[in-house]
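Subject: two folds for Thursday's group meeting

Dear M.,

Sorry for the delay on this. The cluster queue was jammed most of the week, so I only got both jobs back this morning. I'm pasting them in the order they finished. Each block is the input sequence followed by the predicted structure tokens. Could you check whether the formatting survives your parser before we put anything on slides? The first protein is the one we discussed after the seminar.
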Amino acid sequence: MYKLLYLRIKYLNLFFIVTFFQIKIYIKFYISDFSTMPVLPANSKHLSHDAHPTNPYKNDIVLSYHDYLLRTSDVALLERNDWLNDIIIGFYFEYLNQQYRKDNKSQLLFIGPEVAQLLKMQDSSQYNIFLDPIEATNYDFIFFPLNDCDSNEAGGSHWSLLVYSRMEKMCYHFDSSSGINGFSAKKLARKVTKYFLEKQERKYIEMDCPQQNNSYDCGLYVLCLADIISRHAIKNSKVSDCDCSIVPEMVSKKRSNLLKLIYDLKTKLINNIHVKNYALSLPVNANVESISFLISSRISQAPFSPLHAKPHSIGLPINTCEKIRSTKFVRKCIKTLYNSKKII
């Protein structure tokens, strides 16, 4: 019995010794393998905080405004000197639409960048699909934010503004980097005039306007030009003699003004939602995202616009597909649930 116990202990010790040497050899090999790897410099792009964010999946909703959903990454473009994407430009154009309708100045129509891109890539014979539902022919002045992307792939690096004046039967192009968007502007203007005038005519003027002194403010120039030209058009019923000299001064303040506008609208939206909180049994700190989630859990599928289905297939500049659950949709669901006295 003792002899058997001795043999077991002996073999157990041998097992531990062999295992130890295996682990030692493995560690030595592992370390030597790493020692042959190149050492990345401190400024390597592989070590960039942008390439490896603390939480790459966190991109919270900041504001849901009609058809536009602004996320943290969109708003961040306004907090630094960066290009504006189609979400920011589309949001502001929708804001202008709402403001002018509220003031009973419905002769102005601001087209979103995703629709403008579609129109540029489509034949004018298809324009009725996009413009008839919004009764575009009833408006006197129509604003198109224009991107220089001329393919079916996502891209583009410059924004300019094309304005169609029904009163003057003319397209006016305003470009803060003169010449860059000329080809795209003429292409769209030719199709737009054919749709509105029902005949092929050259109705296009390249307007003199202030020029940007950097590579990233083109989007801001489009928004400020839209502000100035729309006011002038309402007052004078024409675009041709609009004085845009104040635009550079407006551009210098536009980022901070847009940030204030976004957070003011967010505060107003949250306050409106709080009115319904009691009836809907929502928490006091409920926001648009949580309400959208709760509503979507009661509804099989939220409505999607066919225009947003495959943005990459129509050459949209940046993530237009984010515009899915709008404030309008959320409010409609809230109203339905409130009226039927259903509790989420």
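Second protein, same layout:
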Amino acid sequence: MKIGSKMTKNVRSQVINCLRRNKDIFAWNPQDLEGIDPGVITHHLNLDPSIKPIMLALEDHKRVSFITPNRTFCYVTMPFGLKTLVDKIFRLHLGRNMEVYVDDILVKSKEACSHVEDSEETFAVLRKYILKLNPRKCAFGVSEGRFLGFMVTQRGIEANPAKIKAILVKPIPGDTLHLYLSLTSQAISFVLVREENGAQTPIYYISKVLNRAECRYTPIEKMALALVTTARKLRPYLLSCPIGVRTNTPLK
């Protein structure tokens, strides 16, 4: 188990005390796995008898496998209407203070002081459904981290630097690059693409969640913020390659 090092002393103490109070949520050894009520995990597929099942590729079988008391099974056709267990039990939390993907859980807090409350809320749901966490895969109180191959920070979702390092440190002079900007009421995002032989290849993507003050910006102010954010992130490209900016937001 890991605990973030950038918290204040008071918040760090609260997080540690929270984990101690909820130590029963973690599976410290195989004997701690009590099992889940079958009524919670049983699902029924609402299928039209005329629909022909879609076969799953062999390499995807392991991604839809599940464990029973006797052995491990997997689906061989696309499971229509199937929702994962975490989607079902955390339906009231998704998008508010939690994001999930299959069995990966991300608890998010807007303020460090509310992280303990959000964690306690998550632990209560896990305890209700007798679910356990693997302490070796848990990190609490971190301000940024990798989730599903991306970097999740206070700024939003960004590409993992380890995966795009070669592109970032070695921009190719003379490349034709295009920057696409997108604005919404609560976020700004952009994607940088390289054009070669008439085809465009994405090479950098950034999404930034706006704070309360930034949400009140006018469209032109949000566009200016997007350009400033872009200039800070793409400095190596700006210094070596001409970049055309494309957006559907009126600039006048």
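Two things I noticed about the second structure. The radius of gyration is 23 Å. Helices lie at 9-21, 38-41, 85-89, 115-128, 161-169, 212-215, 219-233, 235-238.

Cheers,
T.
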